[in-house]
Amino acid sequence: MGKPTGFMDYERETAAAASPKVRIKNFNEFHTPLSREKQRQQAARCMACGVPFCQSGMMIGGMASGCPLNNLVPEWNDLVYTGNWEQAYLRLTKTHCFPEFTSRVCPALCEAACTCNLNGEPVATKENERAIIENAYEKGLVKPNPPKVRTGKRVAVVGSGPSGLATAMQLNKRGHLVTVFERNDRIGGLLRYGIPNMKLEKHIIDRRLAIMEAESITFVTNANIGEDIPAEQLLKDYDRVVLCCGASNPRDIKVPGREAKGIYFAVDFLKATTKSLLDSNFEDGKFISAKGKKVMVIGGGDTGNDCVGTSIRLGAASVLQLEMMPKAPDTRAANNPWPQWPRVCKTDYGQQEAIAVFGHDPRVYQTTVTEFIANKKGEVCQAKLVKLEGKRDEKSGRMMMVPVEGTEEIVDVDLVLIAAGFLGSQKYVTDAFKVALDGRTNVATDPGKYQTSIPNVFTAGDMHRGQSLVVWAIREGREAAKAVDESLMGYTNL
């Protein structure tokens, strides 16, 4: 343990964020990291608990508590406190492939499970993680380390999101020859086109990809497996195939008027924005403009928040965000004790920016759309909304959100972004490989396994577990790599 009284001596401190009205002027990351000395103080706050829930990655109360990667948090916090930055990096990367990604986009399950939460503020573990990996890059510690011996086995990874990249990194480390196929024009999957630039600047991805390429991992873009390239070809050319294609089938809103122009899936909106930014700094005009428009975002999750922040940066005249469920409490309820994930209301960066720009929180709870109304040009111009209330279904016993009579209203909208989640893997990919699916259209495997119903075909990430977090995708990629390695070699040391 570092400083036994650190959690009492030092207050929690995190990276300073630029003010909302300043940061909305561009798409850059907007946090200024702490100094190394302040970072040491934050690490000193770690209590080195006898039972460190921060690294447990357990399911408690139906939700994950602690890091799914089982990062050795107290150990590398202690190393940061004592100034052993290189050892902290080595300890962090024993369990983690891409700390530079999660330290920017993870909701910090580790911090939610921190013992300091019992009567104070948690250790700034996410900040410490970022400091460790960025220091390692600055000092040249993150460098290509290709395997000394090759096995001669060839593995194809389909999809280059966090699960695909983690799978590729681990299998290459073992000595297998790995090729990653990506249907888009750039590598990165969700990291590249699903997460806005202000949360994860894309040079952070490119920095890591350069190292992976130097380690002889092959990346192939514009390769749509199942359409442009037959699945049979991969099964013939490679010893194993790992499907890491994400949960990329967006859930739709099926109401009258859905066919109107100006209604888009959030994933298409965010992708077009980032691609135009990267290609031309928006000069090509190949993005979905929100300038001067009344934007309605349907969905209250992280993707919905990203749509709010992106719309504001693109010059939206107003933003309305619909959430079907009731507002979460501002503080923990009695039935949601630590170390469960706190089910409390979170005002994220996009909502903060909307409050600063428009003077109010954009979120409206227990509300949904019943109809879209188009003008004479076929463009959406209004939406009919209705309030919802929770009622228990007599047959199933489940709580259902049902319309409240007499609460209908009509609002003006010019642009609608549907961020209602994802239903699972895309059918053309699963059909191409003929893999079995579960009831949620995710690729089916035995519990805790990664082998699909088809010999030599494995799966990982959102395609396997459903829509989830980047940290879970990395965990799945690492575990799938172990399964593939064992199937190839008869054992695994990954």
Number of β-strand runs: 18
Supply the CATH class of the largest domain.
Answer: Alpha Beta
Shape: globular
Radius of gyration: 23 Å
Q: Label the CATH architecture of the largest domain.
A: 3-Layer(bba) Sandwich
Major beta sheet summary: 5 strands, parallel
Brief write-up:
This protein is of the alpha/beta class. The chain contains 18 helices and 18 strands. Helix 3 crosses helix 4 and helix 14 packs across helix 15 (349-358).
Question: Mind explaining what this structure looks like?
Answer:
The chain is an alpha/beta fold and 494 residues long. The protein has three domains: 133 residues, Alpha-helical ferredoxin (Fumarate Reductase Iron-sulfur Protein, Chain B, domain 2), CATH 1.10.1060; 162 residues, FAD/NAD(P)-binding domain (3-Layer(bba) Sandwich), CATH 3.50.50; 156 residues, 3-Layer(bba) Sandwich (FAD/NAD(P)-binding domain). Helix content is 33%, strand content 16%. It is built from 18 helices and 18 strands. It has a five-stranded parallel sheet with strand order 7-6-5-8-18, sandwiched between helices. A five-stranded parallel sheet has the order 9-17-10-11-12. α15 links the parallel β11 and β12. The radius of gyration is 23 Å and the shape is globular. The model has no long low-confidence stretch (mean pLDDT 96).
